[in-house]
């Protein structure tokens, strides 16, 4: 992992390459480096990190979603990149508004992202534009809602246990 100084050097490199607004912020917590970028520039940032001459991150180890309710913007997409030569990891984080969660697909850069983006779409409702086959992967096609969002209703079908029906008839009404 890049240390805190290395993370700031990477963030400075990204700001110089894509403008000051490309990097929203950085965090270094528990030896995990994370750079938060603007959603409109994430594909170019990922492509740059993948093709860096000095210390590239050519492997997408993980792509996953997160719901930061009650914060805004609420939804987060995390890309965990890996430099396999030095075994360094770098997280790239993007935050999206829940009203219109849409971001470019990175399948062209990282083919392994195909099913991971489908899972984020299925569980959080984030639309990845340019994805070759964006459809539900875990839930049925006719399922309504996104189960990993924090405002998704918990519970399910009411289960009525009738072992005590004679003692208190109609207790479930």
Q: What is the assigned CATH homologous superfamily?
A: NADH:ubiquinone oxidoreductase Nqo5 subunit
How many DSSP E strands?
7
CATH C-level: Alpha Beta
Tell me the CATH architecture.
2-Layer Sandwich
Tell me the helix content: 10-25%
Q: Measured on Cα atoms, how large is the radius of gyration? A: 21 Å
Q: Average pLDDT, to the nearest integer?
A: 90
Strand order of the largest sheet: 1-2-5-4-3
What would your notes on this structure say?
The chain is an alpha/beta fold and 173 residues long. The chain has a single domain, classed as Beta Polymerase, domain 2 (2-Layer Sandwich), CATH 3.30.460.80. It is built from three helices and seven strands, in the order H-E-E-H-E-E-E-E-H-E. The chain has helices at 4-18, 42-50, 113-124; strands at 23-29, 32-37, 59-67, 75-83, 88-96, 102-104, 127-129. The protein has a five-stranded mixed beta sheet with strand order 1-2-5-4-3. Strands 6-7 form a two-stranded parallel ribbon. The radius of gyration is 21 Å and the shape is elongated. The mean pLDDT is 90.
């Amino acid at each position: 992992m890049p240390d805190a100084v290395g993370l700031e050097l990477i963030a400075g490199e990204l700001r110089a390459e894509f403008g000051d607004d490309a990097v929203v912020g950085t965090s270094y917590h528990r030896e995990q480096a994370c750079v938060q970028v603007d959603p409109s520039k994430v594909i170019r940032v990922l492509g740059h990190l993948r093709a860096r001459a000095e210390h590239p991150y050519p492997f997408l180890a993980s792509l996953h979603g997160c719901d930061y309710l009650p914060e805004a913007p609420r939804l987060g997409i995390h890309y965990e990149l890996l430099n396999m030569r030095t075994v360094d990891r770098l997280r790239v984080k993007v935050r999206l508004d829940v009203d219109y969660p849409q971001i470019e697909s990175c399948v062209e850069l990282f083919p392994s992202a195909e099913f991971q983006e489908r899972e984020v779409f299925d569980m959080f409702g984030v639309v990845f534009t340019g994805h070759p086959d964006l459809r539900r992967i875990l839930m049925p096609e006719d399922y309504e809602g996104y189960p990993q969002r924090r405002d998704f209703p918990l519970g399910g079908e009411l289960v009525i246990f009738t072992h005590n029906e004679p003692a208190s008839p109609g207790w479930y009404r």
